Amino acid sequence: MPERVRVLYIMGWGRSGSTILDNLLGAVDGLFSMGELHYFWERSVLVGRSCGCGRPVTECEVWSKVLRAMEGSDAREIVRWQSDAVRIRHTWKLLHADPAGGAPALKAYADVTTRLYSAARDVTGARVLVDSSKRPSDAALLQLLPEVDPYFVHLVRDPRAVAYSWKRKKAQRDTAAPAEMLMHGTLNNAVNWTVWNLAADAVRRRAGRSRSLLLRYEDFVSRPRDSIASIAALVGEASAVLPFDDERTAHLGTNHTVSGNPSRFTTGPVQIRPDQQWITAQRLGDRVATTALTLPLLARYRYPLVPRAASASS
Ligand SMILES: [Zn+2]
């Protein structure tokens, strides 16, 4: 039997910093970042969005080979299986599901996901694949796949910073026609932030400490190299060469991430810096509403009621 595919899955609500985390992990020796693989079929195959290398997946040196290995797969059908079997609200049920004896859509999606990971591993030769799809439901499914060796990072960010980020316009760079990324209202953001983080907590509890860790965005950007080193150690790559010149300067090469934030196209040296503009620039109404709506979980992740800028000394 071939070795199980080692997969590091990043969970967390949008605008929590998963794209830069994913890009840094992809630059670690032995790791290959696939981006948000959940959206491969819909956005890359059906819509034709570019890979991180700038080419359509059908012309990318990695994904064109993966697609050949997946010949016979129907992208439309796979997208239907996703909406039938791995919605976020399915997370808790999936933690105890049996794909072989479960609904046909779940079994079919479990099979195609296993094949996709195996093909990506065979094409890239990576020791660890990084999937930054962020979805706790797909993460729960990973634990059910006998041919996958799964690890999890749960990335969480102060919900007030996330609310501010959703309100800023960001041009899409990977579609033919420029479009604005989806805007999330204050209420929508607060509810989703809570549900997605609760679901990610459930996956971590099930996986245990030897296979998962919680990473606060604020800790990650204040000590990026240490954070990447901890994650490398989690996946059994403690001695891997890290892409850092110093604690916060990293080098990014061309990547082959299939979906994610426009910053996935960034290459060359990058300085990781805390983004604290929201602390002074956020509208008071958004601040108060988000604080009230996310109150039950704020303390759990050690976020203060009244946010203050961290000192710039570290
Ligand atoms: Zn590519």
Give the CATH superfamily: P-loop containing nucleotide triphosphate hydrolases
Bound molecules: zinc ion
Low-confidence stretches: none
Query: Helical percent range?
Result: 40-55%
Task: Give the quaternary arrangement of the chains.
Answer: single chain
How many domains in all?
Answer: 1
* Whole-angstrom Rg: 19 Å
SS class? alpha/beta
Give the C-level CATH assignment. Alpha Beta
Compute the number of strand runs.
Answer: 7
Biggest sheet statistics: 5 strands, parallel
Indicate the overall shape.
Answer: globular
Describe the structure.
This protein is of the alpha/beta class. The protein has one domain: 3-Layer(aba) Sandwich (Rossmann fold). It is built from 14 helices and seven strands. The protein has helices at residues 18-26, 40-47, 63-69, 75-85, 91-94, 104-124, 136-142, 159-167, 186-207, 217-222, 224-234, 277-281, 284-293, 295-298; strands at 5-11, 31-33, 128-134, 148-156, 212-216, 249-252, 268-271. The strands form two sheets. It has a five-stranded parallel beta sheet with strand order 2-3-1-4-5, sandwiched between helices. Strands 6-7 form a two-stranded antiparallel ribbon. It is globular. The termini are far apart. The mean pLDDT is 91. It binds zinc ion (ZN). Zinc ion binds at residues 51-53, 55, 60, 62-63, 256.
